[in-house]
Amino acid sequence: MINYRGAGPEVIVEEAQIIDLENAAYLPKGRCIKGMLAGNDSWRSPEGRFKGELNKPSDIFSFAACIYDMLKQVIFGADEDLHRHESQGAYPHVIRL
């Protein structure tokens, strides 16, 4: 999301925010979401991957993973090592961590 002023080639961006409303929810202080596989697989937190409690620390982890992705460094992407373990019968969600 951005706040801007001006029009056409004279647009000046005053503020920018990174957002993802795919699984947005308001959580009162001290509350969490539990038991669902929320968010994108590429930047899902470890607790999100195993259907644990999702709250602010989960969001911070996912935000950091998004930053890595923006820098073109996918930290949880499938690689040769993952495919080798999968071919040997390992469960992919466990070995990705």
Please characterize this protein's 3D structure.
This protein has one domain (25-95). The protein starts with a strand and ends with a helix. The chain has four helices and four strands. Strands 1-2 form a two-stranded antiparallel ribbon. It has a two-stranded antiparallel sheet with strand order 3-4. The mean pLDDT is 75. 8% of the residues are buried. It is flat and about 60 Å long. Helices cover 32% and strands 13% of the residues. It has 97 residues and is of the alpha+beta class. It has helices at 46-49, 56-70, 80-87, 92-95, and strands at 2-5, 12-16, 33-34, 53-54. It comes from Paracoccidioides brasiliensis (strain Pb18). This is Protein kinase domain-containing protein. InterPro entries: Kinase-like_dom_sf.
Overall SS class? alpha+beta
The strand order across the widest sheet is 1-2
The helix content, as a percent range, equals 25-40%
Secondary structure tally, helices: 4
Mean pLDDT level: 75
Number of domains: 1
C-alpha end-to-end distance = 31 Å
Shape: flat
Beta-strand share of residues: 5-15%
Instruction: Name the helix and strand elements from N-terminus to C-terminus, one letter apiece.
Output: EEEHEHHH
Cα radius of gyration in angstroms? 18 Å
Number of E-state strands? 4
Largest sheet: 2 strands, antiparallel
The low-confidence parts are none
